[in-house]
Amino acid sequence: xxxxxxxxxxxxxxxxxxxxxxxxxxxxxxxxxxxxxxxxxxxxxxxxxxxxxxxxxxxxxxxxxxxxxxxxxxxxxxxxxxxxxxxxxxxxxxxxxxxxxxxxxxxxxxxxxxxxxxxxxxxxxxxxxxxxxxxxxxxxxxxxxxxxxxxxxxxxxxxxxxxxxxxxxxxxxxxxxxxxxxxxxxxxxxxxxxxxxxxxxxxxxxxxxxxxxxxxxxxxxxxxxxxxxxxxxxxxxxxxxxxxxxxxxxxxxxxxxxxxxxxxxxxxxxxxxxxxxxxxxxxxxxxxxxxxxxxxxxxxxxxxxxxxxxxxxxxxxxxxxxxxxxxxxxxxxxxxxxxxxxxxxxxxxxxxxxxxxxxxxxxxxxxxxxxxxxxxxxxxxxxxxxxxxxxxxxxxxxxxxxxxxxxxxxxxxxxxxxxxxxxxxxxxxxxxxxxxxxxxxxxxxxxxxxxx
Length: 452
What we know:
Elements: H1 3-15, E1 17-19, E2 25-27, H2 42-51, E3 55-59, E4 65-69, E5 78-79, E6 84-90, E7 101-108, E8 114-117, E9 121-122, H3 124-130, E10 135-140, H4 146-160, E11 165-170, E12 182-187, E13 192-203, E14 210-216, H5 226-229, E15 253-261, E16 264-273, E17 282-290, E18 299-300, E19 302-303, E20 309-311, E21 318-328, E22 333-334, E23 341-345, E24 356-362, E25 367-372, E26 379-388, E27 401-407, E28 413-418, E29 423-433, E30 447-451
Parallel strand pairs: 5-12, 7-10
Antiparallel strand pairs: 1-2, 3-4, 6-11, 7-8, 7-9, 11-14, 12-13, 13-14, 15-16, 16-20, 17-18, 17-21, 19-20, 21-22, 21-23, 24-25, 25-28, 26-27, 26-29, 29-30
């Protein structure tokens, strides 16, 4: 299987249906969470992602990265005595395990999406044999299903406490294991005939042997009986504990966050903050869409550690509509959405300055205009604005008509013929940069003409 195909196949595994003990179904593996791009190591983030699905990245024989795991797959390679040159044997942890209880921590949507301790996974036989309970923590913060967290705990326990561990040195037959996860191992001297997880593989420098580290693992680690193994999920808050009234959001303020590399803007995000809620149990939620889109286009905004919400991957020059509401962890109660507010995602906020050489002349049934684009590298286009009557306003009023938009280059000359009908009219030329940004400094003084 190619590297790309492995990711598609793994996605299908994640989408498989697993039945809960109440008879409902869930996907085998789902993921939900956030990470800090500025402060978290990428390797740590990747580990969190893989922990949600028993995933494992590996290198294929042709040097590409593929993914595997998540489900028991019967081995296709068997290593037997004739190919084993030597071995180092460890009886493993087994029932005298280094730990016999996994304390599970996951993100519980029924408890305000807070990290919550679930029903621990116990190896009761190991506890009875050792006479004590030895705990270890398993935190799967990007898992939001208690059932999924318990399934992952069962797999993690089996991997961490194998019955046998050993390292074998093989002849070149061992190369068949280079892209395998599970193999069958038979060593007559030790009475071993079972399935093993490959934990490390090395082709030795002699060019004739391979070194393979193994730990015992079988299909029982992935078998699942929800009735006896799902455990008891954390208690959900009582509906009576829900707050009666959640306050309106006030003080909303939005800004454009620009990511840069070498001085060039490489990404745009919208960040919105608001006045802190009266109760710290409330958290800010936001939704965003492009201006003019219908209600199906709303997208959730991401809650940040400082209490603001953000939406990344915004498009330059596009105006976005956003709404805010407070949300309570008690049963998932939400307050009213605010009225829509708008912000334009602008990569470049540097004005081009005004057009030069602007002239406007009235004539019979039409007016003639000419101007030169400003000498600015970020110039994108000129907009011709018009109002009826004579105006000395330095910028066009809100009701001004956009007669035309002309895209071009710095210092490019433009001319325009307009036919507004008879009367007195005032024109402005507004220069926009390539992000569509303009301000008063990029607008020419008005010109008034009479059309007969």
